[in-house]
Specification:
Layout (H helix, E strand, L loop, with lengths): L6 H59 L5 E6 L4 E4 L1 H7 L20 H12 L5 E6 L10 E8 L5 E8 L1 H21 L4 H14 L5 E7 L5 E6 L5 H7 L2 E2 L5 H9 L3 E3 L12 H6 L4 E8 L5 E9 L7 H32 L11 E6 L4 E4 L1 H7 L9 H7 L6 H12 L5 E9 L5 E13 L5 E10 L1 H14 L10 H17 L5 E8 L2 H8 L1 H18 L5 E6 L2 E7 L3 H16 L3 E3 L2 E3 L3 E7 L9 H15 L5 E3 L5
Parallel strand pairs: 22-23
Antiparallel strand pairs: 1-2, 1-5, 3-4, 4-5, 6-7, 6-11, 7-8, 9-10, 10-11, 12-13, 12-16, 14-15, 15-16, 17-19, 17-22, 18-19, 20-21
Amino acid sequence: MERSSDPQAGDAAADTPAAATAISAHVEEIERLRGRLRATEREHAEVQAALAELQLRLESEAPQCNQFPAGCCTVDADGHLSFVNRAAMQLLGLTSAKPGQRKFASLFGKEAQTDLADFLARVFAGEAGCSCELALAPNRRRERRVLLLLGQAGGDIRQCHLALLDISRRKRTEQREQARSKVLELLASDAALREILEAIVLGVESSDGNARASIMLLDRRGDRLFTGAAPNLPDFFCESINGMDIGIGQGCCGTAAFTGKRVVAENIALHPYWRNWSEVAERAGLAACWSQPIPGASRKILGAFAVYYPYPHQPTSDDLWSIEEAARLSSIAIERHRDAEALRASEERWKFAIDGSGDALFDWDIGSGSIFLSPRWYDMFGYPQNAFGDVLGEWRRRIHAEDIEAVMECLERCLDGNIDNYVAEYRLRCRDGNWKWTLARGLVVSRHNDGSAARMIGTQSDISERKRMEDELRELATTDVLTGLANRRRFIERISEEHARLQRDDGLKAAVLMLDLDHFKKVNDRFGHAVGDAMLVHFTGILRGQLRRFDTAGRLGGEEFAVLLPGASIAAARSFASRLRRAVESAPLGYKGQNVGMTVSIGLSSIDPGDPGSDTSLLRADAALYEAKSAGRNRVVVARNDA
């Protein structure tokens, strides 16, 4: 055979084994990829089968879940709802039990998104006992709701099961109590009327995110309404109704102020009373309104409180109670403001023409010392007419010892010309021995050439009832509504006062206790919040029975309490705490024929005058309380630096 003389043919022959090897490797790579694809397809089929099995199980268990009074739902790892029972449908405002690809987060308001994402992350991470309180997004098919979510992840961590509890009523009650306390604090501190009225409006709005409220004030003539507070209504709408006449057919507020009765317009566009304002209401996004008249103490109408909704809406009994309470608070604020205005005006007058006013009149000739008192003055304090010879001396002897210094100082400043008016509130002893609060107002109407006072005239009013109401307001502003103990703000004030007292005299002692009812949440969960509240009241009664007259007990929040023991050493405080712990343990709460056990954990600390702040001792007691809880509860632990 003849050898080829072509060199390229020789090279091709030499490359044949290498090409075969490359082709073989490529074939093997293709086979590996095919194997991996088949494995992926098998895994995908297994996942689909598992999901189908899960869906069948959920559908088979749905009738049982629908019997649960609590809402139940399932959320997958992508955040989609895969199952809801009938109760959850009602709570969430869903129309179908097959939510499909609906995102669970879409049911909640924007402000709740971060908390919801954190909650679901903790649930899918397998954290035990996950819970979260979230507000649903506003929806015309349901009232504003706040839900308590309890979560548990599934075994394969591809889904989680949630229980949904409606805590809207409790949250609304808490919000209203907070708003009411704020209003009472503003009233007790003599805040401006607009500030108080806005606080009342915002308090009503805080319990329902869809609501917008306003307060309209009746003018002095009693025939027109003007805006007193409407912080969240559009300006153009407020301008359109500002100065409106009252009368039937004058919107809800004008009609309510005229008739003295509540007026409800479930649909503004269709209501005849809104004929003149329906267009501006629509532009403002207002579709429903109800208005409550604001009555004064004499039943004279002071104005009207209104609530608006962005869609046609019928008020619930809870809505009506809320607006009635708001109208009552508004009445107190308006009347107090008008009383203050009247007082300021009367202080500026130099002549007091008060016949028939109910106030007493005095006329003092300063040079001779002669004082004329009107018959009303003697009647006010229970003395016979012209009972006093030395009127000035008898008057001074009947002023309360705690008040006389301030009264005489104010009087002297007015006589000397340093102030224009003599105005003093003080207690005067009546003939029967009781004390009556009185407001004295006087004006020097003539002076001698040297500037010394020659004559003063003035009035004296009985303000005992006003003082009683102010005391009640102060008490309400510093007292926990449920237990009657000092609230957190008042208790912190007492700690500060005691700390300052110890700094003035380092020989004194005092101690503070932090207390927490053990397993209180379980009682709430098992028996309901009504029983939880009853337990707090029951515990308060036991606590009061252990206190001395000058001790202070306060509720700091929830089931957490604190006690201030002035003059108590650590040993005495430990003895007090131990007695209280035993008393609580031996006095269970009776409920429907059964005893609900109750124990308390207590941490205590001395109050050191050298502490940098008045709350330092409270923090030490709180740390000791934490140790008591960690050590098994139902025990007393002394702070480390006091042990």
